[in-house]
Amino acid sequence: MAAEIFTAISALRMVLDSETDADSPDNETTFAAIRVAIESLFLILLGTGDSGTVTDLAESYFEDTGGFGIDEHNGRTVLFTSGNAKGNFYTIDDTQATVIVCTGDTLISDGVAIGDYYVILYDIKTNTGHTHDDLNSPNVVLADASVATAKYIDNSVTMEKIEHGTLHALPCESDQMTALTENGENGFVTKATYKIYVPATATTIGGTIRCNRDTDGVDCNVRFTAGGATSEIYNVDHTGYAWSDEITLDCSGLSGWVDFCIQLDAQAARTVSVQGFSFKWA
After folding, report:
1. Could you tell me which CATH class the domain 162-281 is placed in?
2. Structural domain boundaries of the chain?
3. What pLDDT score does 279 carry?
């Protein structure tokens, strides 16, 4: 492997006191131990797991037939681990299918050659390693239901901490998972109530509702309320489930946690139903 040309991670060890105490002169063993420790720590702490061999190159790029994802390593660091350029770092500016581009660098002049080994590290030149920004930290894929609600600390993630204007989908309770329905001529009836957080800077809430009605006709409506304010009305004119147009509500007088209610208005001998909804603020 490329890492073994640089140093084997398994070779990592502490520098011994007997190698650095007062009566131990500087020697090749001491410096080798220090080098191995530094190189191994680079690979352990910053390695992306990708490595390979240079198959062709120019001053500002090199090729490897092993293949990369497009833009996969942009902004990360390539470290050469063998040859005359062993130990050199370069920032990766572009990643193509079989090409790593280091714009403005001089790979050939610096001693990089065909057959040299390299490893790709999370960015060490600019951001000094892991920044947990997806570019410089590994992706973590959670299995379905691996993080249960009970594992969250109350209020550890609140709406006010979420970026302004982000779209939010609100979950339904278990007994509301199929559809919320209303039939008969009763005017608007509240069928579900949730809590949402409205930032003080927000002026408008926009919602979309996935709804239908069971038979053709007119005047089957849906709307929502937030903090007592009422949104525009959307007339459900389709018998299959479909998302409504955006329904807006003036929330300039609201802030903090408020009740968010879904309201349905059916007509005689008809049923209007809701299967899901989402909202955003601006």
Report:
1. mainly beta
2. 2-121, 162-281
3. 84
